[in-house]
């Protein structure tokens, strides 16, 4: 069977579903292809995969018409960063940037579920689940996508939002550059004796950062970066031994751990597609770039790709026009490259040789003492140009 759309999006994760909802909200005929099934509503214990959403991402989600479940979201108003072995310490407060909050922490599943709920209510969006592309080609003013369930879709623009191992990127012959940090991030959801507040903190150590992302109530998501072999040994600990290891390594302010809720670890890699665009094709989100998660920006920059692409599509009669796609690539590659460079330098400044770590310490000192520099950094982290006031 053959179906025509204005835009076909491959990948219904957070980034692809957000773009589909934004375009559907504007009346575009969207086909969303997802190889999995629609996400279920989150309930009970919080999921392990948590993400921060900054101000620009929240604006974009709001423009898509999705409603986030307030009871599963934790707003944060401060970010505190310090160096365990030096004196460098910086506290960033939303009020310094004239904001009520920096953003929220939300489970990936809760965000994806809210977006899919929105898609169900949009009459011009069709979701194709449990299927994936087999091939793609351009003919005339359309790109065709053949699916493995026998259907064929056509659209003026096909968007790859199918994650780091993007099949659409491979089918389009777009190569990537990669870098392995030889580190893993162990994520541990815990319940604590102390209530967590509206501050997210990160303590740099020579083996990698220890981060605390607050969740509603007496809950937190801990991210413990370390060498791959040390992390694997830590993963083998039983709950009591892991509690003791956390309490020994983490700063006292975390308080006692009353329960280990869940844990898992992920390899840390950087990846960047050599091109974001092709003939009637664009890549967004992790399909285009994967950054070190220490600054919590991977999803945010993916949503900013979707925001920029949606704006350009909505300005055009032909959503796949090559001039618009080149503008998309130009704007987003520059911003994403800057984020990759920033997260990379944070990683090397705090886990490199001692002189580099001293430089890292000094940079936190300087950031703390220069309100102008702090403000610029926060505007970048919120996804807005430092030269534009909101
Ligand atoms: C430890 C860790 C912590 C992180 N913390 C943060 C954070 O705090 N803040 C932040 O902004 N980012 C964070 N990130 C990054 C963030 O998780 C990713 O950037 C984000 O999930 C990317 O979303 P995506 O929709 O582009 O890709 P994905 O989430 O990978 O979604 C891709 C979707 O495409 C579907 N798919 C895949 N292949 C196909 C196919 N062939 N056909 C059809 N469908 C397909 C998949 O089923 C999936 O639904 C973190 C990452 C890690 C590893």
From TrEMBL:
Among InterPro entries, the record links this protein to: FAD-bd (IPR002938), FAD/NAD-bd_sf (IPR036188), Ubi_Hdrlase_CS (IPR018168), UbiH/COQ6 (IPR010971), UbiH/COQ6_monooxygenase (IPR051205)
Instruction: Cite the Gene3D superfamilies for this sequence.
Output: FAD/NAD(P)-binding domain
Q: Cofactor(s) for this protein?
A: FAD
What UniProt keywords apply to this chain's record, in alphabetical order?
A: FAD, Flavoprotein, Monooxygenase, Oxidoreductase, Ubiquinone
Tell me which residues make up the FAD-binding domain. 6-341
* Claim: Hydrolase is one of the keywords in the record: no
Please indicate if the UniProt record lists Plastid as a keyword. no
Cite a single Pfam family from the UniProt record. FAD_binding_3
Pathway(s) annotated for this protein in UniProt: Cofactor biosynthesis; ubiquinone biosynthesis
Name used for this protein in its record: UbiH/UbiF/VisC/COQ6 family ubiquinone biosynthesis hydroxylase
SUPFAM superfamilies reported for this sequence: FAD/NAD(P)-binding domain
Positions the record marks as coiled coil are none
The family annotation for this protein states: Belongs to the UbiH/COQ6 family.
- Give the top-rank taxon of the lineage listed in the UniProt record for this protein: Bacteria
């Amino acid at each position: 069977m053959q179906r025509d759309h204005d835009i076909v999006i491959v990948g219904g994760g957070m980034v692809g579903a957000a773009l589909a909802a934004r375009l559907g909200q504007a009346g575009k005929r969207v086909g969303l292809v997802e190889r999995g099934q629609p996400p279920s509503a989150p309930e009970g214990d919080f999921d392990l995969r948590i993400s921060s959403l900054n101000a620009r991402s929240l604006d974009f989600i709001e423009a898509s018409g999705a409603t986030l479940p307030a009871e599963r979201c934790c707003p944060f108003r401060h970010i505190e960063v310090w160096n365990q072995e030096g004196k460098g310490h910086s506290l960033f407060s939303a009020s310094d940037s004239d904001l009520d909050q920096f953003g929220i922490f939300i489970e990936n599943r809760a965000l994806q579920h809210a977006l899919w709920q929105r898609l169900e209510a949009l009459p011009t969006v069709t979701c194709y689940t449990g299927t994936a592309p087999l091939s793609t080609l351009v003919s005339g003013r359309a790109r065709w996508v053949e699916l493995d369930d026998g259907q064929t879709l056509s659209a003026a623009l096909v968007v790859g939002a199918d994650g780091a191992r993007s099949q659409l990127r491979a089918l389009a012959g777009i190569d990537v550059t990669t870098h392995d940090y030889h580190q893993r991030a162990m994520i541990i959801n815990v319940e604590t004796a102390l209530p967590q507040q509206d501050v997210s903190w990160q303590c740099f150590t020579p083996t990698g950062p220890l981060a605390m992302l607050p969740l509603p109530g007496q809950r937190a998501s801990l991210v413990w970066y370390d060498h791959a072999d040390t992390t694997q040994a830590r993963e083998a600990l039983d709950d009591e031994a892991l509690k003791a290891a956390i309490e020994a390594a983490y700063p006292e302010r975390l308080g006692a751990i009353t329960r280990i809720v869940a844990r898992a670890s992920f390899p840390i890699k950087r990846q960047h597609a050599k091109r974001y665009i092709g003939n009637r094709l664009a890549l967004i989100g992790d399909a285009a770039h994967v950054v070190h998660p220490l600054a919590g920006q991977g999803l945010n920059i993916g949503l900013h790709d979707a925001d920029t692409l949606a704006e350009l599509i909505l300005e055009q009669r032909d959503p796949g026009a090559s001039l618009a796609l080149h503008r998309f690539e130009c704007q987003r590659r520059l911003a994403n490259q800057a984020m990759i460079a920033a997260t990379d330098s944070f990683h090397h400044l705090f886990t490199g040789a001692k002189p580099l770590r001293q430089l890292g310490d000094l940079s936190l000192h300087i950031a703390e003492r220069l309100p102008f520099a702090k403000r610029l950094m926060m505007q970048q982290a919120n996804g807005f140009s430092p030269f534009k006031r909101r």
